[in-house]
Amino acid sequence: MKNILRAATLVAALVSTAMPVAAAQCGNDSAGFANWVQDFKPQAVASGIHPQAVEQAFANVSYNRDTIRADRGQRSFKLSFDQFMEKRGGPTIIARGKKMKNTHAQLLTAIERRYGVPAGPLMAIWGMETGFGSFLGDQHTLSSVATLAYDCRRSDYFTEQLYAALTLVQRGDLSPAARGAAHGEIGQTQFLPANVVRYGVDGDGDGHVDLVGSRADALASTANFLVGHGWQPGAGYQPGEPNHVAIQGWNAATVYQQAIAHIGAEIDAR
User: Fold this and answer.
1) TM segments (predicted)?
2) Which residues make beta-bridge pairs with 186?
3) CA dist 7 → 31, 41, 67, 115 (Å)
4) pLDDT tens by residue, 207-234
5) DSSP code string of 201-216
């Protein structure tokens, strides 16, 4: 836990240090991306990232058009609840989630004992995000995050994510070749890099926070995220109940929040 707190402090320090420096010029197409990278790298070094980590991280970074298309086209969150559940395979997630709950009962019991988060919402998130780890994404993570940091639409937000990703590379917790979702989400429950730094947990005790290869790390980190967003042990998590605020912290889309609460309740039902 001390390492997690130190890492979170580092990200905050990196971002606060970096922002006053003359920022690299954002853009809305690929034309200026290469120049932006060259401007950004010395800023990252000046902010405390080791030069070797910066060079490793940017070695294969390129402008990611798939990321920009995904960022501009998140239409599924405008569906009704029933439409969303059908599109995302809600009944299948519930059925498989019940089996996964039994398969990983010992791990889930330990997580609930430590964090007060029951299996249902964890299985709902795991199933919704990656089909229980079956598809983690096929986009080059550092390219995705760098593209969105360069893109003018949400440059400040994703610049923070990029500094966090560089911190993870420096720590040895993110491979420069890592692949994930289109916005740079990492691992089996799809954490943005800054959330890996803030809430990532070494659930299996191997000294690293590996949200890709370790189910224990991914699920414990997800529980820790929910606690960090107000989860109260023993309280309900349906809309209007105390712990729904933590689910709202996971995803801003109302229909997504409803789906997690519904799927979780079905999985938790005895």
Assistant:
1) none
2) 191
3) 34, 20, 27, 20
4) 999 999 999 999 999 999 999 999 999 9
5) --TTSSSS--TTT-HH
